[in-house]
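Table S2 (text version). Query chain:
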Amino acid sequence: MPVGRPGRPDAQLLAHITRSLAATAAEFDAGGHFPHANFELLRRHGLLGLVVPREFGGAGGRLAEARELIAAVARGEPATALVLVMQLLLTRLLGQPDCRWPAALRERVLRSAVREGALGNQLRVEPELGSPARGGLPGTVARRTADGWRLSGHKLYTTGIDGLRWLVVWGRTDEPTPRAGQFLVPADAPGLQVKRSWNHLGMRATASDEVLLDDVPIPLDHAVDLCAPEDWLTRPDPEQQAWMSVLLATLYDAVARNARDWLLDFLRRRVPSSLGAPLASLPRAQEAMGEIELLLVASQAQLDAATAAADAGRPWSAADSGLLKVAVTRNAIAVVELALRQSGNHGLDRANPLQRYHRDVLCGRVHTPQEDSALVAAGRAALRPAAQA
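Corresponding structure-token output:
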């Protein structure tokens, strides 16, 4: 299918995307299979290159446009939105002037996103290591050869693997003093195997399976960012952190807004015979809806502020961005749980989407930064001596 010209989507296109993806969301959730058709739709409209700089053929979208797109996609089908978040974060990173990748390789990946709608993601989590954000050397090892590298390792939670063209694999070299960094691996590279293990409660269509790398050959320049291992934890990029936190929080906020809309319709339509009026007429239902609105308004204000700051070149600190992600995710989960409480058995019925929203929104807790890490980072920053603050 031809790829559309990259551009910034208007409200009409965003509404069309939401409707189209929502029509098959339950099907993808039930089957747990990757939503290829959803990405064909996004490719057709040139949206996979939204944040690629104009010099590489992209639309040069800011965080505000990326956030609007993620919200629209997540209102339709959130697993698609999660894969898209990873695409936007990778292409945003490669589009920065200070990107440490070889220029030709960087351009190749960015232009493939624009011209072909090629998807990419960063593979970091491992069975023994867990999340690399908590420190430690990766178990994935790159062995230097005469003409490049041979990569071996085991990665978990490779979101979107069935649709990816590019895998950016975090690993270390086998040198006497190892360096850690990223290695660009084409998804069809020999020695790469997908282990089908994703059978999650929520976000079921993300195809977040495991990847096994067995002596995978890659060219020398595909080692794109090697440095001392400790540098990975001491050089946070506040802008990239802001983008990640805003987009992930936006996704789960969108799921919560779907739950709010479902509950509004339920309370207006449900007329118990014992009441003789819609549930919406009850003060307890009105109070619950007020609580939901409070949570959503608070999340909206925080997301608006963080987005505006990032787009103005004044991103929040990494610690504050982590708090944003935690706060909005907490609010989103609380909204869906309030909706379930008001709906009773109706919301838990498999025929109703509310139970799916609940399963999906709980997944917001597991994305980096996890709640404990974000709170510790913020607390440590607050407790620094005044002279160091």
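Notes on Table S2: The chain has three domains: 11-117, 123-228, 236-383. The mean pLDDT is 94.
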